[in-house]
């Protein structure tokens, strides 16, 4: 397989992971490539059990469990999840709300674990979902634990408005970051999804560098202002517990993360 083929295969996998289920035409459009080229790559990836095509009329493509299993074995995601799952279970039982675990993925975060609430009305982010740093509780917590230089770098880029309540002015996001630093946890009221409020805290290395974040998420009708302090204290405590456990295991770096 040529270098260009490898690049195309990776781009196809990344595109599917962001937009799945997604059809052939949409994949080709996202990659600015021909449908014939993309179809050849999809056929190869299907043979290798990385992607699967639905049997429905739209015949959309999605990643397989095999693809997630391979990526989940990556160092920081797998190691952090193994360490975090116990404290996360305790947090979910205490709050009865959805708990997410995210790790860095370039200039965003990606969801690597989710513990669901027993409530019918719930927050939901699929595993593998990319989370913008400026518009989420986990992202704000990550930025709050990062250096000012890193924050300036992120806020100097494009800040997408992903919901009606997303803060897209750098000064407004800076204010949320400063408040998160003062409290020890972040609050994101409907900045990522309308009707969903979250609180988050950063998991840090022994050197104080953020390795990931944990959050509590749920409908804004349940996660009201009166619960912010209790939930924030709980999620910050959980993040510290995970950080301490990571320190005991002497976990190393988190890939390409700039701070």
TrEMBL record:
Keywords of the record: DNA-binding, Transcription, Transcription regulation
Domain of life the protein comes from: Bacteria
The IclR-ED domain, residue ranges: 66-248
Gene3D superfamilies: 3.30.450.40, Winged helix-like DNA-binding domain superfamily/Winged helix DNA-binding domain (1.10.10.10)
A UniProt-annotated Pfam family: HTH_IclR
Domain HTH iclR-type: residue ranges: 3-65
Transmembrane regions listed in the UniProt entry: none
UniProt name for this protein: IclR family acetate operon transcriptional repressor
């Amino acid at each position: 397989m040529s270098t260009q083929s490898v690049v195309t295969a990776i781009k196809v996998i990344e595109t599917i992971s962001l937009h799945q289920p997604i059809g052939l035409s949409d994949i080709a459009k996202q990659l600015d490539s021909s449908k014939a080229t993309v179809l050849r790559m999809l056929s190869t990836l299907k043979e290798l059990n990385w992607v699967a095509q639905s049997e429905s009329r739209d015949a959309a493509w999605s990643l397989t469990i095999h693809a997630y299993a391979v990526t989940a074995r990556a160092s920081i995601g797998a190691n952090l999840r193994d360490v975090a799952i116990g404290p996360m279970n305790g947090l979910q039982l205490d709050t009865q709300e959805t708990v997410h675990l995210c790790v860095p993925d370039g200039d965003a975060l990606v969801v690597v674990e989710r513990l669901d609430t027993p409530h019918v009305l719930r927050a939901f982010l699929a595993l593998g979902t990319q989370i913008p740093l400026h518009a989420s509780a986990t992202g704000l917590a990550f930025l709050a634990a990062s250096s000012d230089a890193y924050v300036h770098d992120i806020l100097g880029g494009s800040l997408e408005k992903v919901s009606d309540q997303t803060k897209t002015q750098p000064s407004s996001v800076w204010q949320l970051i400063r408040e998160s630093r003062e409290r020890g946890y972040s609050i994101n009221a409907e900045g990522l999804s309308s009707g969903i409020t979250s609180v988050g805290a950063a998991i840090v290395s022994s050197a104080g560098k953020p390795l990931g974040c944990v959050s509590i998420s749920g409908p804004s009708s349940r996660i009201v202002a009166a619960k912010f302090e209790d939930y924030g204290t709980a999620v910050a405590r959980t993040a510290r517990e995970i950080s301490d456990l990571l320190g005991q295991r002497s976990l190393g770096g988190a890939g390409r993360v700039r701070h």
